[in-house]
Design brief:
Number of helices: 2
Distance between the termini: 35 Å
Largest sheet: none
Order of helices and strands: HH
Number of strands: 0
Structural class: mainly alpha
Strand content: under 5%
Radius of gyration: 13 Å
Shape: globular
Helix content: 25-40%
């Protein structure tokens, strides 16, 4: 079993958290498939890697 510790001592934004999980462990297509089960419309998802310069 693997364990991931998240030490968000000063908080974390949702998009940063999801981005970190997608980069580490979550299958991107499985994530999109699960979101489609929420019956929420009017959003789009663009998953891509980038680096800050």
């Amino acid at each position: 079993m693997r364990t991931l510790y998240l030490d968000a001592f000063s908080g974390i934004s949702g998009d940063m958290f999801i981005g970190a999980l997608l980069d580490l462990v979550i299958d991107k297509q499985a994530f999109i498939d699960k979101l489609s089960n929420l019956n929420v419309s009017g959003y789009s998802i663009d998953i891509k890697k980038s680096s800050a310069k």
